[in-house]
Write a structure and sequence with these properties.
Phosphatidylinositol 3-kinase Catalytic Subunit, Chain A, Domain 5, 2 domains, three-stranded antiparallel sheet, 11 strands, binds adenosine-5'-triphosphate, binds magnesium ion
Length: 344
Amino acid sequence: MLTNSRLVSCGWITSAAFVFSMIKAVGGDCAGAVSLFEDGALPPKPAMYSHKTLADDHLAKIIKELPENPFMADQAGIRLSLAGAQEKLPVSLKDNKIGISMNGAPSSHILKTPIKDLHGTVENETFCMMLARRMGLLVPDVKIIKINEIPLYIIDRYDRKIENGQIIRLIQEDFCQALNVNAQLKYTPTLDVCFSLIRNESAVQIKDTKRFLQLVVFNGLIGNSDAHAKNISFIHGENGTILAPFYDLLSTYVYPYAKKMAMKVGGGRHFQFLEPKHFERFSKDTLIKYKIVKETIVTMADKIVGEAKNTTEEFFDLYGKSPVLNEINDVIKNSSKEKLKFFS
Ligand SMILES: Nc1ncnc2c1ncn2[C@@H]1O[C@H](COP(=O)(O)OP(=O)(O)OP(=O)(O)O)[C@@H](O)[C@H]1O
Ligand SMILES: [Mg+2]
C-alpha cells in the first residue's frame, strides 16, 4: 500500500491519515482482484475499458516524476496502486509499447524503475527471475524495455488471466495479509510460520511446500536478503488456494547494505555461513525431513552455476552486457561451493 507519508509528501492530499482519501486516490486497480469505487459508483463494464499508449518522452517524464507523484495519482481518472518500497507502475503492453489501462481496465504488467544509488537493479532482478525459471521455479515472464536510455523492468501480472479475450483480475493475498500481520511488520513472520501457513491453507500443500523450500534455497544461493512476508503470495482461484508465482527476486548481496536474510534459516541470517546444524534446525522448525532439505540444497547448488552461466549468455544476447551480472555470478559461485562442500 502506498504509505501515508509519501502521499503527504505529494502535497495534494491534506488528510492522508484518512484511509478513504488514499483509496479514493489510488484504489481503482490494486493487487489482486480489488477495485474500490466511491459509494454509488458502479465498476465500469469491460466494454468501456480502454488503453492509452504512452509516447516515450511522456513515459520518461512520468518515470522521472514517480517519486513525487506515485502511481501518476495526480492525473484525473488514474487510480492505481501496489505495495512495496520501490517505485513502480501498473501498466499494460500493446505491441510491446507501454501504456496505461483506463476506464476500469485491469493492468496486465508491472513496471519497476532503476533504484537510485544502487547499480543495475533492473538488470539484477531481470536476470534473477530468468535464472529462477531455468532452475525450475514458477515465475512470470519478465523483460527489459528501454525508454530514452532508461532500462525498465517489466513483469507479467500473475494476478490476471485472459478469459474470452478479456483480462480478468484474480484474488491474491500476500503472506502478511494471510497471517494478519501489518505491512509495517513484514520482516517479522518466520520461515516456520510461513511453512505452516502453506500447510494449513494450500490446496496442494505438498507441492507448495516443495516450491517454497526451493525458493528459500534459491534466495540463499543468489543472495536475496529481502525475502520478507510480503514477497510471497497466495492466489485464491477456482482450484482453491495455491502459492502464486514468485516475484521480487534479486541478488541484494551485491549491494553493500543487504547481507542479512529477512528470515532466519535454522537460526542463521547469513546463507553463506550456514552449516548442516542450521539446516538440521531448519528441518525441525519447519517439519520438513532433513533428507529432503539436504537433497534440495545439493541439487540446486549443483545446478545453479551452470544455469547462471546460460542465463548470463541469454541475457547478454537480449540486452547486452551488464557488469552487475558478473557480481551475481560470483555470489552464486561462492554460495554454491560452500554448500556443496558440506553436503557432497
Ligand atoms: N508479477 C506480479 N503480478 C501480480 N502482483 C505482483 C507482481 N509482482 C509484484 N506484485 C505485487 O506487488 C507488490 C510489490 O511488488 P514487489 O515486491 O516486486 O515490489 P518492491 O517494491 O520491490 O517490494 P519490496 O518492498 O519488497 O522491495 C507485491 O507484494 C505483490 O502484491
Ligand atoms: Mg516486494
